[in-house]
């Protein structure tokens, strides 16, 4: 099995694993094979690993491992930040040693002497911005402002108190147990930047993703061009190869040329392949994030909508008529009534008890939801408006 086939196998397996971990919980996959695989990887695998370790290493070691994993997963620490910085710096070092001396050449213009340092600076700069910018931490001082920016849709966000911060949680906010704060328009907690991603720093997070993806593809492109220049220099295109068995001579093939180069420039080839693969992974994540932006949902909200979609698919979702009208904008007169209800939320068919109303009355009071398209996401202002909201977020301290 040659290097190319091996790389393809590993990439496919890795892509499947990432897909299962990212989308296995989605309502569409939850009850199927991918959902089962997701539960296997996230529930059963850690459970059996824990049991096996208990048998092999004993309780004391497992307890230490537990507290170690608790620290890794549930507290704020810079380990992944350090890992990212080491990875990027290591790759830049390998590039500097193996590729930089070859620039410029017949395939790489002089402009790259200036763009490479610029690209490197932008990666470190965006990493610092994303890691140390305020994601939109809510305090007693700016909470009223946040409450006035986002109204409750009474579907995925209803007025609730944060017991830790001791104030009313604005719509679209979430309390992060790692940062120990409520974050305005919370997206998710990102361990790579050791920071929450929210209303104020989502743009820096996107910039960080774009520059990481950019440097990865740029690096692999430069490696490719350096290889092409090197092939010309070594006149590889004119080589002949001899078949070991038949002793037949033939011109070197396209695949053989590249295998020859990979064999002679191992370090540079490894860097190029690693950068290209890393770029693909980050690009896939960028596409996912942008699809959420264009739909007007945060990562946190996408999980909430997924749960609602799951209930709809199971035929378990009915919505109070008042809420349905409010959601569809027919709420001018009823607004006060709906708001007064406060916690009016979509009701699951299962578990409703003690209904004194007649069947017909009940049918009028509730709307049966057959598809997620029947529910409007009031935070979706259109792709362009959503993007502008991210690039130029309204300030929280005014
Ligand atoms: Zn809080
Ligand atoms: Zn956080």
Automatic annotation (TrEMBL):
EC number: 2.3.1.225
Subcellular location: Membrane
Its membrane topology: Multi-pass membrane protein
Keyword entries, A-Z: Acyltransferase, Lipoprotein, Membrane, Palmitate, Transferase, Transmembrane, Transmembrane helix
A Gene Ontology cellular-component term: Golgi apparatus
InterPro entries (UniProt xref): Palmitoyltrfase_DHHC (IPR001594), PFA4/ZDH16/20/ERF2-like (IPR039859)
Residue ranges occupied by any Palmitoyltransferase DHHC domain in the UniProt entry: 158-305
Catalytic activity: L-cysteinyl-[protein] + hexadecanoyl-CoA = S-hexadecanoyl-L-cysteinyl-[protein] + CoA
Family matches, as Pfam families: DHHC
Composition skew (Polar residues), residue ranges: 337-346
One of the GO biological process terms: protein targeting to membrane
Region feature Disordered, mapped onto this chain: 328-363
Transmembrane domains' residue ranges: 6-24, 82-99, 111-132, 204-224, 266-286
GO molecular function: protein-cysteine S-palmitoyltransferase activity
Composition bias, Basic and acidic residues: 353-363
Keyword rRNA processing carried by entry: no
Top-level enzyme category: transferase
Family: Belongs to the DHHC palmitoyltransferase family.
Notes on the domains: The DHHC domain is required for palmitoyltransferase activity.
Name of protein: Palmitoyltransferase
